[in-house]
Design goal:
12% strand; single chain; alpha/beta; Rossmann fold
């Protein structure tokens, strides 16, 4: 092989070194390229998606360079704004209320409890009359065919406890016992039955009456026990004579907070049943149904009119002016 001229050798060396130099310069100057200018372009590959397709577009810069500073107040401004809010001051406690001189005029609460006589006409009319008095607020709970003899049918001990707790009355008015001339049972069959007219019946019924009175009277309530009215059926009224006597003694044992109100005098005509009387502005109204036991509507009104003044008096109140005028 012949020798290469110096000039050619230099050229060859430069040509050999130029790609490396260009590569180094490309790092410093991106305009430099190792590709030949006469090289044909290769087939283009997949074009990368624009930046907007990959990332969310950045919000445009505000026209005013200080806009962002205006939108986000400095801590000092935020504190100043908070200090500008009105201060919440806890309200001062109200002074203790002075005794109301009309306290004695506020409603007295009355609760009526009993069997069908309380559940139907008499109880409903009495409740209405009491509610019309400006100083009385009345509630009522009645259950037909009930009494103290059959707690397996209706438990008056439990019901009385619920009622006095719910209403917290000053006075409880009771009329019950018309269905009690029968065997005494318990809430369950485990309690021994006491047969009607057996030696132990009177004492057992007195015990139940005492327990019922204790429940409704509590420590400071008054009780007005309404005696059972005269009945037109003699055999039935004879049963009630025994029950009236036991109830009378039980109420007396409570003391001055309990009153027994005998209803026989205004439901009997001597030894017979009172069948007609003046009721309101109406003369000679029939008081009883044909069975001599149940009351007519006129009879219920008559009975309620007789009881009403006794309830008012037991509460220590007075009849209204209109009521006094009507009674004259």
């Amino acid at each position: 092989m012949g020798s290469i001229p110096m000039s050619d050798a230099r050229l060859t060396t430069w040509q050999l070194l130029s790609p490396a130099i260009c590569l180094a310069l490309a790092v410093l100057a991106p305009g430099c390229s190792t590709e030949k200018t006469d090289r044909q372009p290769s087939t283009p590959g997949p074009t990368a998606p624009p930046a907007a397709a990959i990332t969310a577009e950045a919000p445009p810069a505000p026209d005013n360079p200080d806009a962002s500073a205006q939108q986000a107040p400095k801590p000092e401004a935020a504190n100043a704004e908070a200090e500008a809010q009105p201060e919440i001051i806890e309200a001062a406690p109200e002074p203790e209320p002075k005794p109301d001189p009309r306290a004695a005029e506020r409603p007295q609460k009355v609760l009526i409890l009993g069997d069908s006589l309380a559940a139907t006409g008499i109880g409903a009319l009495l409740e209405k009359k009491l509610d019309q008095h400006p100083d009385i607020d009345c509630a009522r709970k009645g259950k037909s065919s009930s009494g103290l003899a059959r707690p397996d049918f209706f438990d008056w001990m439990g019901e009385a406890k619920r009622q006095v707790k719910a209403h917290d009355p000053h006075l409880v008015v009771v009329i019950i016992g018309g269905n009690d001339g029968q065997d005494l049972t318990g809430k369950t069959k485990k309690i021994k039955r006491v047969h009607w007219q057996s030696d132990g019946w009177d004492a057992a019924y007195r015990e139940r009456t005492d327990a019922f009175l204790k429940e409704i009277a509590g420590d400071n309530r008054k009780v007005l026990w309404l005696g059972l009215p005269k009945m037109g059926l003699s055999s039935f009224d004879k049963k009630l004579e025994l029950i009236r006597g036991i109830q009378t003694e039980a109420v007396k044992a409570v003391g001055e907070r309990a009153t027994y109100f005998d209803t026989v005098p205004f439901t009997a005509d001597g030894d017979q049943l009172l069948k007609k009387a003046d009721v309101g502005n109406k003369k000679d109204q029939t008081l009883r149904a044909d069975d001599g036991i149940h009351f007519t509507m006129a009879g219920s009104e008559y009975f309620a009119d007789k009881i009403y003044p006794e309830v008012v008096q037991t509460l220590g109140l007075e009849l209204t002016v209109d009521e006094k005028a009507a009674g004259e």
